[in-house]
Amino acid sequence: MTLDQDYDKYQRPFRIRKSLRELVHKPRASKSSAHSALSLPPLPYHDHKCEEYAYDVLFECQRGSLALGYSSKTLLQFDPNPWCDADMRFTPMNIENYQLPDPTWQWVSKDWMIDMTEDVDEAGWQYALKFHGAVWHGNYKHFRSFVRRRRWIRLRHRPLNSQQLQQQQSQEPLLLDLSDTTPNSSSSAPPDMPYSEKDITEKLQKCRLDRERLAVLNGAIKSTLPGLEDQLLEKAIDYMDMFDYDDSKYKFLTQLLQKKYDSDQGKIHLTEREKKAVQSLRFYYDVQSILNSIDPDVVTR
Fold first, then answer.
1. DSSP 8-state assignment for residue 224
2. For residues 52 and 157, is the Cβ–Cβ distance under 8 A?
3. What is the Cα–Cα distance from 233 to 224, expressed in whole angstroms?
4. Side-chain half-sphere exposure of 26, counting CA atoms within 13 A
5. How far apart are CA 135 and CA 174, in angstroms?
């Protein structure tokens, strides 16, 4: 056996276990990384035992140049998304559709604000050669400013004392009037259907958040008499298209189908309209969860 054969015998193939996007997206470890984190403005003075304040942070990212202009549409495959969280990671939300963590929180700031506390230009942008592992600066430099980012912040607050929270909720006006329409309304519903299709659509269009849309549809579901759920199922897909998130679509459809079908029924046959509504869900797990919530042993798709 020759030396070349011995070398081929013990030679191991070289494999890259991570994708190019993961390798480029991962920031380099540097000694100054601990000092490169952007600081936030100080929180308002408050009693930590009774209330809590926190900043929500979003980064707006763009690529380009001063001559050609910057845009989020020119971002490369290994660049961050147009909108990122405080850690420069993907987030499906932006300043237009950002939602609070839960109903106990309230916005202190009326709108999102551009953070101007760091080294930024007059519009709040920071420039760099690339998004990860580069030094950010507030002034444009030739051949060192191919990307830019801008930080948006918004302050939120919630009371931690349960008594204060109940008092605050009792004083808060409702964001949406969920009461039934008056008899003088131009779009009166049938006597067996307290919510007409036009009423539901108008109320959904006034909603800004998914939890408000769920409140409208849950009220319509609860007020619907048994056996009349098909009137809601006819427009289920249209109502689901008004939601921003798949989890909200899943919750609405689950509650509607659970009211129509109960465990006392025999073999359940989903109608074509119901099948289309279930199949419109994005995730296979949600589809199976709905079928199992009805009854996994009796459902016929």
1. S
2. yes
3. 12
4. 7
5. 47
Q: Rounded to an integer, what distance in angstroms lies between the CA atom of residue 110 and that of residue 95?
A: 12
Q: Which of 109, 127, 131 is nearest to 118 (CA)?
A: 127
The type of residue at 277 is: A
- Angle at CA 86, nearest 5°, toward 244 and 128? 115
One-letter amino acid identity for 15? R
CA-to-CA dists, residue 281 to 54, 149, 195, 249, 289, angstroms: 34, 34, 25, 7, 11
For residues 29 and 271, which has the higher predicted lDDT (pLDDT)? 271
161 and 151 Cβ atoms separated by less than 8 Å: no
With residues binned 3-state (H G I as helix, E B as strand, rest as coil), the percentages for the chain, rounded to 5, are: 35, 15, 50
Is the pTM value of this prediction over 0.85? no
Q: Could you report the per-residue pLDDT of 277-287, keeping only the tens digit for each?
A: 887 777 776 77
Q: What's the rounded mean pLDDT across residues 142-153? A: 92
